[in-house]
Amino acid sequence: MTKPLRFGIVAGEKSGDILGASLIAALRSRYLNCEFVGVGGPAMEALGCESLASMDRLSVMGFVEPLGRLPELLKLKKRLEQRLIKEKPAAFIGIDSPDFNLRLAANLHKHGIKTVHYVSPSIWAYRQKRILKIRQSIDLMLTLFPFETAIYEEHSVRAVCVGHPLADEIGFEDHKVTHRQELGIKSGAHVIALMPGSRAGEIKRLMPLFLETAIVSMQKFPQLKFVIPYSGVEAKAQIDFLIAKEKIFKSDQFQLVDNSHRAISAADLIVMASGTATLEALLLRRPMLICYKVAPITYEIGSRLLKVPYVGLPNLLAGKKIVPEYLQADLTVSALTKEIENFMTKPATFADVLSEFEQIHRGLRTGASEKAAEAITQLLS
């Protein structure tokens, strides 16, 4: 019996799990007898990936937040190294989570294992010198956006822009009516989605502010309804606790939803954390307010290193500010309620960006998972 082709693969959060699952499916179509081992979430595990640890253990962000988890992260890194060095997979594929995956890849590369990193770290925004280490330890960089690939090519790093799988999965039809029916929301309702992110730290920092914004906005616009998507049991419990603290737990104007795609599609406006979900909102052509808040010292360090004028993907992809961004001290209840008031009274001003959203969508629709699998196949040939 032919020995299966084995891949090491590590994803650190929900968005990486989705990318990883799509890539696993594409690789399986090319290599009928292949196996995957590393760290993944429910989507990757459903396709047969052997996960050596809970993906949630890698879900940290910022400069300071990971320090409290450092011993655990180092222990997991060592465990993965020992397993993968022993088994010598055809390639190691790190999906996002660059601070963890690039270090792991560097050690595996020293042992002759081919290394792939899927989703470029934000070298164009800060810590640009990382590209020198990437050149030494990564055999193939798979980028989501064209402007990233050009940077790697300038530094002689093998890179392929594959586009974003979400742009392939999400079509140009609007399913708002259908998704509202599925959620039991009236077709004519004014719906705002509150999306503080999937990490516990993000929810802790942003959800109280989002809820206060909702309460203040309802005083002026009592017809508003808020949907709050969550990812996982722990996130739901955390959000439930914060809602109960605000004494709005029984209000039918707040609805928790276990599907972010459906929540975004059903909404008229999204108040959301910066991150991958902003791209999904763009692809679904929903106006949004992008919010960013981290530990003060993390922001102090990050703002000094930041080399780009925006944090939101829609603005970065457009090359200009097309979506409002509220960062750190500027992120206030007053600022958000004013934006919601503008949306309720002057909706046309938010609708102007929708054609730009569609243009960006078409540019990213390139068959990402198949392109990524093809690039990996060429690396191994």
TrEMBL record:
GO BP term, pick one: lipid A biosynthetic process
Keywords for this protein: Glycosyltransferase, Lipid A biosynthesis, Lipid biosynthesis, Lipid metabolism, Transferase
GO (cellular component) term, any one: membrane
Molecular-function GO terms, alphabetical: lipid-A-disaccharide synthase activity; phospholipid binding
Leading EC class: transferase
EC number: 2.4.1.182
Reaction catalysis annotation: a lipid X + a UDP-2-N,3-O-bis[(3R)-3-hydroxyacyl]-alpha-D-glucosamine = a lipid A disaccharide + UDP + H(+)
Biological or metabolic pathway of the protein: Bacterial outer membrane biogenesis; LPS lipid A biosynthesis
Pfam name, any one: LpxB
Family annotation (InterPro entries): Glyco_trans_19
Role summary: Condensation of UDP-2,3-diacylglucosamine and 2,3-diacylglucosamine-1-phosphate to form lipid A disaccharide, a precursor of lipid A, a phosphorylated glycolipid that anchors the lipopolysaccharide to the outer membrane of the cell.
Family from the record: Belongs to the LpxB family.
HAMAP family xrefs: LpxB
Protein name, entry field: Lipid-A-disaccharide synthase
